[in-house]
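step=encode ok
step=design start
structure_in=
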């Protein structure tokens, strides 16, 4: 059976790391889209306009197929990549971490910088509530009123709550079911001859 779950964070969290007068403030956010990422970055750049750098990394999608790491002016690979590494090691997706740096006057060197960004990001993750979500398939079912009991029996069997239901002349409803059960569910519903089922 393939894995149909992924991990993300439940709510925003913060972390902090200090080294030789430099302060690294880390902010982790649950995000679903690039637009949300941009929104958080813009807000942090306004709130911490006097900071030297706003390095960040994000991973999006249940399959972790969209990601980016940005050094924001730090030496290449010392800011975004260590943050991205922490997202990977915590196995998180749909998550953005931004680390805001206030320079303390003493250079930390490439390995010192990478360690600072990594540690700040890790602290934000440690303060977050990590949750597991399922990868779901959404279906719309259309059926005649007489078939209602049969449809509801199958929903109950799979412990599904109908969404967006409409029971006027004909009935329709939408359900989301985790991928590992979706084929069996589809077959069960398709066996009811009068039900029209479509994948959303």
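sequence_out=
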């Amino acid at each position: 059976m393939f894995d149909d779950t992924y991990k993300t964070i439940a709510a925003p969290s913060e972390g902090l790391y200090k080294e030789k007068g430099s302060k690294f403030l880390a902010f982790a956010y649950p995000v679903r889209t690039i637009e949300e990422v941009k929104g958080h970055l813009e807000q942090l750049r306004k709130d911490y306009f006097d900071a030297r750098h706003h390095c960040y990394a994000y991973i999006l999608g249940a399959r972790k197929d969209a990601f980016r790491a940005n050094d924001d002016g730090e030496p290449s690979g010392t800011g975004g990549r260590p943050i991205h590494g922490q997202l990977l090691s915590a196995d998180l997706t749909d998550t953005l971490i931004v680390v805001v740096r206030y320079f303390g006057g003493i250079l930390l060197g490439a390995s010192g910088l990478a360690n600072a960004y990594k540690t700040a990001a890790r602290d934000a993750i440690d303060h977050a509530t990590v949750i597991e979500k399922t990868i779901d398939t959404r279906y719309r079912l259309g059926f005649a009123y007489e078939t209602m009991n049969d449809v509801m029996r199958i929903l109950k069997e799979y412990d599904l709550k109908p969404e967006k239901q409409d029971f006027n002349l004909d009935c329709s409803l939408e359900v989301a079911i985790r991928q590992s059960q979706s084929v069996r569910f589809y077959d069960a519903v398709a066996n009811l001859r009068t039900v029209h089922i479509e994948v959303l």
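step=design ok
step=annotate ok -> The first strand starts at residue 5 and ends at 9.
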